[in-house]
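worker-03 picked up job from queue 'complexes'. Input manifest follows; two sequence lines, order preserved.
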Amino acid sequence: MIEVVDFHKSYGDVVAVSGLSFRVEPGQIVGLVGRNGAGKTTTFRALSGVIPPTLGRLAINGFDLHQSPVEAKRSFAYVPDTPPLFDLLTVWEHLEFVAAAYQVQDFQSRAEDLLEQFELTDRRDTVAQELSRGMRQKVGICCGYLHRPPVMLFDEPLTGLDPQAIRILKNSIIDYADQGVAIMISSHLLSLVEDVCTDLLILSDGRERFCGPLKQLHRHALELGVQASLEDVFFHLTEKPQTAEAGR
Amino acid sequence: MTLPRWNRALVLLWRMRLRARVRHLFSGMRSLKGALAALGGVALLGLWIGNVMWGVSMQQPRSADWLRAAAPLAMLLFCLLNVLLSKPETGIVFSESEVGQLFPGPFHRRELLVYRLAGNLVSTLALSLLFSLFLLRHVPLWSAAAVTAFCAIWLVQMVQMGLALLGAVVSRHAYGHIRRSILLLCLLIMGGAVGMSIRQHSGHSLVEVAASIHSSFAGRVLLWPFAGYGELLASQRLFPDVLVWSGVVVGLNLMYLCGLIWLDADYLEASLQATRRMYIRRQRGGGTGRAGGRGESGSGFHSLRFPRWLWIGGAGLIVWRQMVTAWRAARGIIIVVAFLVLAIAAPLVLSGDPLGLTHHTMIMLGVVSVVFIPQMLRLDFRADIDRMAVLKVLPLRPAAIVVGQLIGPIVIASLLQWMILAACAAIQPEWRWGLCVAAAFSLPVNYLVFSVENLAFLLYPYRLPRSGIADFHAFSRHMLLTCVKMLVLLVCAGICGGVGGLVLWLDNTTYTPMLVSMWCACAVLTSAMLPLVCNAYARYDASQTVAD
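worker-03 finished. Artifact:
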């Protein structure tokens, strides 16, 4: 599971995220949404252990990212919007490296299954620089899935994917959540969030505007007197932050 | 301190990437064109090495005392320059794929640090072997030169890393204080040592002064970490000299490495930002342009606005964009100017022959104008390699875009040259008329040079290789294009010279008609280049992928 307590991140005088706290339990799929500059990327980078928090505690699967970074990192997969693959390595070599990094024993059959699932079997020996954007995204997803982590972080996972791959990905995310994986998805596509997520975390100006189940959001929206579509609620919360101290 | 284990995954990655690079190298040679290009690259590289070695072989061999005195001083100077030029926000640069794949991966920071150093191992080895060849004339043993070069490059890389780690450990403010304190201390000690040595040995040779600095207390304090380099270079026998001094130098480097590992600074965020800055610079600069893409840096020029005066069929708009970029990249251009002035002024100051000075200056200026300035000022199509589609869809004529793209760098290059010429005229007033003639030629010559550069680029778009000289395809492509460009410029110079010679033959009373005719010939040739560049731009396929 993911646990974030009073997370602050500042760059000099600029506050990127302020006082963010939330939990993602096994089986939950949390959508992280917000306008550009809301603090989504900063939150994801901090959760993936790339940047340290200015203040607060971030833990993955019980491991504090500051105290035990390697154990925490071993517990999650991070799929960025455009996976930065090694240009000259083949698809298979990427999987081989991930298997070695996460100490996956007998990864071959698992890797072959994933390649087949994402229709990459015939691209197994293709070097990354010859892959299209969508295929690179698929390779990134396969790398993330390979070691069966208990936590998964997706940053705009549908970028470049074709309709078939989108369906496969959505179904696989729901399947993993059913198996007890804690999942977080950062996306601007509210339709994806509505289709897949069980919970929602809305950020605006680095602050939490809503955090809770989607159903609760709809109920809350009705209380506020706005129409109950996610899009309307999103605009309501992110455009009028002073009147929308919602959630919880 | 826990020493980092060899992470199996990182070792595997290192091996796979090395294998992939070799595979990539040979995959290009499967076609006849690729094989010929690679062959051309090897031949050009061989020619270049041969040429440099021939030049080195013409030099007087250095004595053992000279090596002992010069090597530690050179190393100290290099390290001090690193400290001086480094910024607190400097990070250890990884590639974008390494940041994306390794930073969120289950790796210790120390393991990644060792991986970063090991990643440079092959290129460091190749460079060391190359440098050792150039040192052969001056050192008794090649093995000593090779080890010295390897350890020196290794140390320089580690010094850069050390500064980045220090910047990550302490705050920016504290980093500034520490850096200033270290520099001040070193400069005080060094200044004292140099002052005393010069006072004691006035009129003596540089080696004697350097040796005196070495023997002083201050010199011993500052130079002891580098003394091994001088002893190693001066070694006469493989055993015990080379082996013992190699052990000393390698041992000191290992101690420094242990210090870096012990520091265990959280450098990931700084590295992420450094890598991002490099990526943006690369995207904006179309590769490696020093002054061509620094708009994102905090140079403090952002608040300044550049006026937009003229339209000129749309060319004015393009010029305005180029000048705004140049204005905001003013820090980069200032560095370029400072470098050029130093490169030209240093021989002026150090030499004693006033006539030789000016000849030297003029040759330097010519080389700088034709070779270095066009490479540094990439404010034209070469910087817009990723924005060609945007330029193509602008509702402007190709001629307007081409003129607009070329005017910016030409004006800046000419201004730089005029500043240098003015400085030369101030130093050598008797040469002012010659310098005025050079200033008059600078505008058409620049137009010609940048036209040729851009014509070559539009016909054969390329990015400069990231992988250095080991990538023979990219290297040979770049070298062949450079050769062709130089050939075209030589032909143009020949035509201008021919016209000037003809006029002088017809009227040998004064040089003025000859110079005017040469200037006119240069202007005509320049004008003739414009339609060629316009045609190349019109035919440029913006949808093509330009490989690294």
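worker-03 released lock.
Residues 242-248 of chain A have pLDDT under 50 and may be disordered.
The beta strands of chain A are 2-11, 14-24, 29-34, 55-60, 63-64, 76-79, 151-155, 182-186, 199-204, 207-213.
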